[in-house]
């Protein structure tokens, strides 16, 4: 009799075991899903900051590119101007030499010059016609 | 010394081609119509029936104004308001003056303050002491404690008020007042204003060498005015050209006499009570207003030759002055108005 019921018992046992296993697996899965969501929520600000930092880096890179181009332009202009500065410096040197010569010539001039006498004849004009004349007032 | 003042009757005044002459305030009074000829004005007046454009009417305005001014402000007229006021100095009597006298006293008070006391009409006692007498004011008690509420020492310059104004038009003065110069300037100011409101746009008004000009001269150009030679020479020392202007002169040429063999004149230094001796014979100032031109000419004269250039320049005045040695000098503003200078050979 016992041997006759054994297959049934084994089947029930196997089914119960499988059910318990499935329930355990579902519980563990739920727990793991909850933990993953918490982690994702905790990481969200960090992700946003990372995105923002990336944008800042991009803008900075763009600014650096513009500054680099401006520097390049300035350098190019300086290169074009440099020969003229050289010319100006040469002119200043020439001018300094001229000033020195003039200064020497001025020092060589006499301190006093006697001018010839000039005779001037002045034709005195009569006073214009007047409508009235100021005068001593009272008080 | 001419001490007789008074306005000649209008009948005694003469008119020649838009020129009217008489005497007022002890000086010649003259009115010249400019720009439009008198006959044109008369024709215009008869056509438009506008009595305003009538030179004779303008002259009557001039005569009336000067008569009213003398009645209010003359120290030479025995019956004037000013003489009555001066007689009451020190008696604690407060008078209610006419509008003219009150305005003149207030103007003199303002000039005294603006000039830091260099202009001071309270020199009448010193003028009388030196012999430049007007109507008798022997009843006055200048210098008494009651007569000097401002606390200034008599005969010395003070920065206190010249006139104390009280309610209901009552005023008081602490010392006898001489409104001669500024009074004439104010009368010229008021007369010119009345002439303007009565249609006169181009005219010259002269009272004893003080001048007001408006518009254009009879020949259509600016008014050409001579700067008098204080030595009495027949020719002017300079000639200036002006439009709307006023000129006043402080000079020793007319009012000078001898006291105890000492030559004196009527332009007193309020700091000393004696005639100003600053090396100047005459100072003329041009400006928009004859009363202030008079004030500044006197202030510059009293200040003397040493500081006149700086003072006139700092005030922005157009001023001409003649030193005792006869030299004519002027400010830059005056030079701009000058069209002829005798010393420069014309």
Polypeptide structure, described:
The complex is a heterodimer of chains A (139) and B (346). Chain A is mainly alpha-helical. Chain A contains 1 helix and 1 strand; from the N terminus they run αβ. Chain A has one helix spanning 2-108; one strand at 132-133. The mean pLDDT of chain A is 87. In chain B, strands 1-2-3-6-7-10-15-16-17 form a 9-stranded antiparallel sheet. In chain B, strands 8-9-18 form a 3-stranded antiparallel sheet. A two-stranded antiparallel sheet of chain B has the order 4-5. Chain B has helices at residues 38-48, 55-73, 81-87, 99-114, 124-129, 180-197, 290-303, 305-315, 332-337; strands at residues 14-16, 19-24, 27-33, 163-165, 171-173, 203-207, 210-214, 223-227, 238-242, 245-251, 256-259, 262-265, 268-269, 274-275, 280-287, 318-323, 328-330, 338-341. The longest helix of chain B is centred in the first third of the chain and has 19 residues, at 55-73. At the A-B interface, β1 of A face β3, α6, β6, β8 and β10 of B.
How are strands sequenced across the largest beta sheet of chain B?
Answer: 1-2-3-6-7-10-15-16-17
Question: Unreliable runs of chain A, pLDDT <50, ≥5 residues?
Answer: none
Described by the principal axes of the CA atoms, the overall outline of chain B is globular
Q: How would you classify the helix and strand content of chain A by structural class?
A: mainly alpha
Instruction: Describe the main β-sheet of chain B briefly.
Output: 9 strands, antiparallel
The helix/strand order of chain A is HE
Count of alpha/pi helices of chain A = 1
The count of DSSP E runs of length 2 or more, i.e. the number of strands of chain A, is: 1
Mean pLDDT of chain A: 87
Radius of gyration of chain A: 55 Å
**How widely separated are the two ends of chain B?**
34 Å
Q: Helicity range of the residues of chain B? A: 25-40%
Instruction: Give the overall shape of chain A.
Output: rod-shaped
- Class derived from helix and strand content of chain B: alpha+beta
User: H/E order of the elements of chain B?
Assistant: EEEHHHHHEEHEEEEEEEEEEHHEEHE
Residue share in β-strands of chain A: under 5%
């Amino acid at each position: 009799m016992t041997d006759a019921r054994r297959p049934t018992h084994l089947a029930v046992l196997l089914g119960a075991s499988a059910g318990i296993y499935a329930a355990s697996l579902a519980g563990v899965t739920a727990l793991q899903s909850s933990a993953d969501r918490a982690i994702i929520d905790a990481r969200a600000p960090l992700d946003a900051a990372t995105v923002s930092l990336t944008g800042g880096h991009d803008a900075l890179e763009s600014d650096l590119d513009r500054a680099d181009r401006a520097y390049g332009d300035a350098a190019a202009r300086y290169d074009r101007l440099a020969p003229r500065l050289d010319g100006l410096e040469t002119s200043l040197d020439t001018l300094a030499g001229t000033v020195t010569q003039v200064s020497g010539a001025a020092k060589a001039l006499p301190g006093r010059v006697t001018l010839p006498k000039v005779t001037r004849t002045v034709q005195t004009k009569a006073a214009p016609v007047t409508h009235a004349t100021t005068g001593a007032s009272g008080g | 010394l001419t001490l007789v003042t008074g306005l000649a009757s209008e009948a005694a005044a003469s008119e020649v081609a838009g020129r009217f002459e008489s005497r007022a305030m002890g000086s010649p009074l003259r009115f010249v119509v400019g720009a439009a000829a008198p006959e044109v004005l008369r024709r215009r007046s008869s056509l438009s029936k506008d009595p305003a454009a009538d030179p004779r009417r303008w002259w009557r305005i001039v005569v009336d104004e000067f008569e009213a001014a003398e009645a209010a402000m003359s120290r030479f007229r025995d019956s004037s308001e000013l003489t009555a006021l001066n007689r009451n100095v020190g008696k604690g009597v407060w008078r209610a003056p006419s509008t003219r006298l009150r305005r003149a006293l207030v103007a003199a008070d303002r000039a005294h303050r603006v000039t830091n006391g260099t202009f001071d009409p309270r020199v009448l006692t010193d003028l009388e002491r030196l012999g430049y007498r007007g109507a008798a004011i022997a009843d006055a008690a200048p210098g008494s404690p009651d007569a000097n509420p401002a606390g200034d020492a008599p005969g010395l310059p003070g920065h206190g008020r010249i006139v104390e104004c009280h309610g209901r038009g009552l005023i008081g003065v602490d010392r006898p007042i001489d409104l001669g110069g500024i009074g004439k300037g104010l009368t010229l100011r008021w007369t010119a204003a009345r002439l303007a409101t009565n249609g006169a746009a181009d005219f010259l008004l002269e009272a004893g060498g003080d001048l007001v000009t408006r518009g254009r001269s009879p020949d259509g150009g600016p008014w050409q005015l001579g700067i008098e030679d204080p030595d009495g020479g027949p020719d002017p020392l300079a000639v200036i050209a002006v439009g709307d202007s006023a000129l006043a002169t402080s000079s020793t040429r007319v009012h000078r006499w001898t006291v105890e063999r000492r030559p004196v004149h009527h332009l007193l230094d309020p700091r000393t009570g004696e005639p100003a001796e600053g090396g100047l014979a005459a100072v003329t100032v041009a400006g928009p207003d004859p009363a202030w031109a008079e004030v500044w000419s006197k202030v510059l004269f009293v200040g003397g030759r040493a500081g006149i250039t700086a003072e006139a320049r700092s005030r922005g005045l157009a001023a001409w002055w003649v030193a005792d040695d006869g030299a004519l000098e002027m400010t830059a503003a005056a030079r701009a108005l000058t069209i002829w200078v005798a010393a420069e050979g014309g």
